[in-house]
Amino acid sequence: MHRRSQTRLRPPIRFGHPDKCWTIWRIGGEVGEIASRLYEQPARDYTISTGRIKTFGGKDGIDVFRRDCYKRSNFIHRKDVVYKVVQPRYEETSIRHLSATTVSIRKHSSTHCRYIFPRPHFPSKMVNIPKTQTAATVPKLGGGVVFVHDYPVPQPGHNEVLAKVLYSGVCQSDLHTQAGIAASAQGTPITNVKLPHVGGHEGIGRIIALGPGVDEDIKVGTFVGIRFASRICRRCNFCLAGKEQHCIKSTNHLHHEDGSFQEYIALDAGYLTLLPDDIDPVTTGPVLCAGLTTYKAVKNCNVSAGNSVVVVGAGGGLGHLAVQYALAQGAIVYAVDGGGEKGEFLKSLGVTGYVDFTTTPNLIDKIHEITNGGADAVIVTAANPKAFAQAAEMLAVGGTLSCVGIPAERGYLETPISTIVIKGLHITGNLVGSLKECLEAVDLVRRGIVKPKVTVRPFEDLPKIYEELERGDVLGRIVLKIAKDE
Ligand SMILES: [Zn+2]
Ligand SMILES: [Zn+2]
What we know:
With 486 residues, the protein is of the alpha+beta class. The protein folds into three domains: 109 residues, no CATH class; 184 residues, Quinone Oxidoreductase, Chain A, domain 1, CATH 3.90.180; 139 residues, 3-Layer(aba) Sandwich (Rossmann fold). Helices cover 19% and strands 28% of the residues. It has twelve helices and 25 strands. A hairpin with an 8-residue loop joins strand 9 and strand 10. The two termini are 29 Å apart.
């Protein structure tokens, strides 16, 4: 099928410096990622070539367009979209349709650069990267959230990708950090935070552009997670041990870099949380912090089928996921939280018993009674120090206390040392988890074994959501709708 050259062209879209830019003429449909990919290449050094080449990565056959682009114009056709690639100073003379998923760009030196556009990810609309965006900024810790609509969109640097943020969960750490009361490893407030602070570390985005030097395995259109950890060194003992969340040179999206409470984010392509195509972007966000943390907390307890696990704060964002990850391990789970609504919800998840702390005079006695002598593991997900104080006393001999929530204040465990020694108790702490563990936690959600309970709210509700989190009356996790997926 051929179109005539007199096809009416829409205005061209130009990328890059005028001397070395590709002009992409839009004939039908919208200009997609081809435009954004080509823009990185200096046009003078390349010709576009065509021809049929081998099947790539199990996908359909790939057509490559062979034509000297110094004399003729080039068109790439996909479905109802025709892309025409021309250099500004040469006249277009013909139009050709191709079902191309790959454009091969050859340097005059005959070095090949190959660009693969995988079918499932091919965006149907133009990848429009604006200069500014909406971001929920915190100019001063404790000063509240200010929505800014002209916040700069980051440019992806070397080995970075630019992602559009679609959804983001709201974590207790976001609340504490913006308020300037998040506790450090020493129990003192963390105040050394990049300002303006942009929180969010449970984000799901879609890659929309690649910076220079990004590995060709990384595709535009792929879902990507915006997690707590942003960059790691890959060389320290913790990185080498697969505990890179403790990397001595790490940076994170809470204290050092802007997080997912903005529409666009640049991410290190060397430490990307690449997610499968079939995840649900709405429910997967909370897995990246709350889910991962509780998945790891359950793992730390060495729970096996039939063990009893008590989750304290079970109805919250972390808690309801801890319940489900423990159930997925075959544990018998008892939930502690307050109120009838949370009780009903937790019973629907499959807990064996629900203990309402608002109506139970002695929690420790109650747990010993229903677990017949104490729990094999207690996971405390509440961020209130009172929830931790006597939690270890709920344990059976040899049991494990897994601390997950981080109270804002300098909270303490108040378990007698004699109890810990005589009963041979274990106490573990937990800071998120590794990327591998994150992907394991995501997979259980993707398969429907663990189901995050989420409520989607508009981006501008963030200040209200912080108030609700502070009051502690949030069931499951709140997820913000950030930017439109195009
Ligand atoms: Zn978090
Ligand atoms: Zn490291």
